[in-house]
Design goal:
The protein is of the alpha/beta class. The chain folds into 5 domains: about 180 residues, P-loop containing nucleotide triphosphate hydrolases (Rossmann fold), CATH 3.40.50; about 80 residues, Arc Repressor Mutant, subunit A; about 160 residues, Rossmann fold, CATH 3.40.50; about 160 residues, PCRA, domain 4, CATH 1.10.486; about 45 residues. The protein contains 31 helices and 21 strands. The longest helix is centred in the middle third of the chain and has 22 residues. The chain starts with a helix and ends with a strand. The relative contact order is 0.10. Bound molecules: adenosine-5'-triphosphate and magnesium ion. The site of adenosine-5'-triphosphate has 17 residues, from helix 3.
């Protein structure tokens, strides 16, 4: 391996300085991650460093896997004993060995966000905290921030004694943490803070790991929060051989406690540190890089950096201003097909990036129609599906009997006549006496508030569970899953159902069995049930981007961090969407949104599209948005409008539909007042191609678009979807709306069809017409 051929001078310098502290501070696509990979190879190959002594922390499991693969190609099997993983996976591995030092058992369960929510809700109920005062999402976020800051429940309580709401959060935090411990469970934030706790309370354990990890590397260091920072500092404390790489312009997790100062202060923490700047971008064409640089330079708080490329200018940034969200999705779909026809591109070469997951749905619909294969990263993960969570809850409980959240999830799933009231009685008994819930069920005769029938049904459940626990030792994970679904008749219930959704649920469960088989045949050392559950808990969405599968990837810009694609579509580029509404009123958040935009732009190698829509449906209402300020920040010379004369408002000449648009407040959903909207960007948002319109002209035009888009569809709107309305569906026939509930940015409508029974449909998907 001739590193000098593979790396430029500065990169080579960074890769071959292995002793002491190195900070690589450089812009996107400058080869930071590449340097880390070759640095490891160099350490093993040239410096004879034992792989056992290396710890490399990456941002995703996928990045870790790729790094390991590449190193393996260079140095062979020796790479296997190296720890290359994410912060979370690293800490879990440490905790599996050491957590008993702080009073947990080693087979602890990892709670995901929905388990966390269940537990927080239980605590709120016990503490009589009304979710009108403060809702569970806010509490969870506050607890999470406190953990990021290494603030214990007691400290939090002391700090917020005088604040009515935060005091309530503190009470929940105290109880939540107590319950987690009783359940022998950790939430995601705990994984890192408990590892730090193990180290700070046990200097001998810390020293063992300091000696083990003599060489430490961290990718995407700009996004570390306080607790991650502390962990790295502790581990590197003895040998101080540490190399961190990052880009302050790509810090996009401040909302989750990431502290940009960690990278900016590295030189203060380690005054001897060598700072390496990489200034050549190897990823993007010139125009794309110029666009990125022009956007990010609007941020006040940053270290100025140079980023140049030897690549040619390439195509200009393609801007498309659609007249509706529908039109935007159509444009993206047709462009993908056109580009594939005209160039030798595959679906893999494209990605659609948006700010929030909810934006994926409308693209999905269009892609299905056009036959474009796609994959959505995020949204409902496989492991978040109800049926998968149910089966996993059985496994978690088998593995860790103290896990009362999993226990309560499945005690009556499938239904076995154990009602909520019965469960509550046992829970109260357990809480009053300080017993584990599962133990109380085993000795259920002692719970004197129960009837003989209650006791009998509970016995059926505990007999089943005890059998599973005994079988755990004898069966492999996949066999255990099959055993559980057979004995509980979970799968049978789904197969017998006539609901087509249950058919797909049954298939998902089979898929889970396959995942377990794959795990058993895979490279992991630990093939136990704990090992499987751990793996499942730590799967990240981006891990699933599979280069072999020929599909277009749709994901948030956050998920796309570190990745690159030949063609990138940044969609929903509107003020109020990207940047989001909050960022428009807050300079700090605006700067974070701008960094996010910079991350998005710099994912593109060859072609970058930025699209926006003049009106879109949000919460069932039609809202008008101005084109994103970030597009305006890109100089006109770098941009080319796809629809200079087509698409957009300028082609529509139906000025006469003004009065059929009646609902004045349909503009307020996106939080943009008409006045502000016009003042900001001119109605159409075309900077160059349009002359300025008067207010009333603009008003008229906007109205005409609203009405024409309403006329276009005979589609039932949010306002019309009220209980009692008669509707018609092309397949299910006529029916009556029973209820309509807002779910995310869509509406779930429950309808009693005259001949097809009751169905739940999503308003935006279902072709419903008013009768
Ligand atoms: N010296 C080099 N010679 C050839 N290709 C290179 C060189 N350095 C980097 N590259 C390529 O440039 C692309 C970007 O590199 P890499 O992903 O390591 O950048 P990065 O700085 O980590 O980017 P990001 O900030 O987006 O994470 C990759 O395809 C990489 O292989
Ligand atoms: Mg990188």
């Amino acid at each position: 391996m001739d590193l000098r051929k593979l790396l430029n001078k500065e990169q080579y310098d960074a890769a071959t300085t292995v002793d002491g502290q190195v900070l690589i501070l450089a812009g996107a696509g400058s080869g930071k991650t590449r340097v880390l990979t070759y640095r490891i190879a160099y350490m093993l190959d040239e410096k004879d460093i034992n792989p056992y002594n290396i710890l490399a922390i990456t941002f995703t499991n996928k990045a870790a896997g790729e790094m390991k693969e590449r190193v393996k190609k260079l140095i062979g099997e020796r790479a296997d004993s190296m720890w290359i993983s994410t912060f979370h996976s690293t800490c879990v591995r440490i905790l599996r060995r050491e957590i008993d030092k702080i009073g947990y058992k080693k087979d602890f369960t990892i709670y995901d966000s929905s388990d966390q929510k269940v537990l927080v809700k239980q605590c709120m109920k016990e503490l009589n905290i009304n979710d009108k005062d403060i809702n569970e999402q806010e509490i969870i976020a506050k607890i999470s921030r406190a953990k990021d800051q290494l603030m214990s429940p007691a400290q939090y309580k002391r700090l917020h004694e005088k604040d009515f709401r935060l005091n309530k959060v503190a009470d929940v935090y105290v109880m939540y943490q107590k319950r987690l411990k009783e359940n022998n469970a950790l939430d995601f934030d705990d994984l890192i803070s408990k590892a730090v706790e193990v180290f700070t309370k046990n200097p001998d354990v810390l020293e063992f790991y300091q000696n083990k990890f003599k060489y430490i590397m961290v990718d995407e260091y700009q996004d570390t929060n306080k607790v991650q920072y502390e962990l790295v500092k502790l581990l590197a404390g003895k040998y101080k051989n540490i190399c961190v790489v990052g880009d302050d312009d790509q810090c996009i997790y401040q909302w989750r406690g990431a502290d940009i100062r960690n990278i900016l202060d590295f030189e203060k923490d380690y005054p001897q540190a060598k700072t390496v700047k990489l200034e050549q971008n190897y990823r993007s064409k010139g125009n794309i890089l110029d666009a990125a640089n022009n956007v990010i330079k609007h941020n006040a708080e940053r270290k100025d950096k140079v980023l140049r490329t030897e690549a040619d200018h390439g195509a200009k940034i393609r801007i498309y201003r659609a007249y509706s969200d529908n039109d935007e999705c159509d444009f993206v779909g047709s462009k993908i097909q056109q580009l594939m026809r005209e160039n030798s591109l595959t679906y893999n070469d494209f990605t659609i990036l948006y700010r929030t997951n909810a934006q994926s749905r409308s693209f999905e619909e269009k892609f299905i129609k056009r036959g474009i294969p796609y994959k959505i990263i995020g949204g409902t993960r496989f492991y978040d599906r109800k049926e998968i969570k149910d089966v996993l809850a059985y496994l978690k409980l088998i593995n860790n009997n103290a896990d009362s959240v999993s226990l309560r999830r499945i005690i009556n799933v499938p239904k076995r006549s154990i009602g909520d009231a019965t469960v509550e009685k046992v829970v109260s008994f357990a809480n009053e006496n300080g017993f584990m819930l599962y133990d109380c069920l085993l000795d259920v005769e002692n719970v004197n508030t129960l009837t003989a029938r209650n006791i009998k049904t509970i016995k059926v459940f505990t007999d089943l569970m005890e059998d599973f626990i005994a079988m755990k030792e004898q069966l492999s994970v996949s066999m255990l899953i099959e055993y559980v679904i057979e004995k509980t008749e979970y799968l049978k219930g789904l197969k017998d159902s006539k609901d087509p959704e249950d058919v797909s649920r049954a298939e998902n469960i089979k898929e889970l069995v396959s995942a377990a088989v794959e795990f058993e045949n895979g490279p992991d050392e630990d093939k136990s049930l704990s090992g499987f559950l751990e793996k499942v808990s730590l799967v990240q969405d981006v891990d699933n981007i599979d280069g072999e599968q020929n599909v277009v990837t749709l994901m948030t810009v956050h998920s796309a961090k570190g990745l690159e694609f030949p063609v990138v579509f940044m969609v929903g580029m509107e003020n109020g969407i990207f940047p989001g509404q909050q960022a428009l009123n807050n300079e700090k958040e605006m700067e974070e949104a701008r960094r996010l935009c910079y991350v998005g732009i710099t994912r593109a190698k060859d072609i970058l599209y930025m699209t926006s829509a003049e009106v879109r449906r949000v919460f069932g209402r039609t809202v008008a948005y101005a084109q994103s300020d970030f597009i305006s920040e890109i100089p006109a010379s770098l941009k080319e409008y796809e629809n200079q004369n087509g698409g957009g408002l300028s082609t529509r000449n139906s000025f006469n539909g003004g009065n059929s648009y009646s609902s004045g407040n349909s503009y307020s959903g996106g939080g943009y007042s008409r006045e502000r909207l016009y003042a900001r960007n001119g109605i159409g948002g075309y900077e160059n191609s349009r002359s300025t319109m008067s207010y009333s002209e603009a008003e008229k035009k906007l109205d005409s678009v609203m009405s024409s888009s309403n006329e276009k569809k005979g589609q039932l709107t949010r306002e019309e979807a009220v209980p009692g309305r008669k509707i018609k569906h092309p397949k299910f026939g006529e029916g009556t709306i029973i209820s309509a509930i807002d779910v995310g940015d869509d509406v779930k409508v429950t309808i009693a069809f005259d001949s097809q029974g009751i169905k739940n449909l999503m308003l935006s998907f279902a072709p419903l017409e008013l009768l």
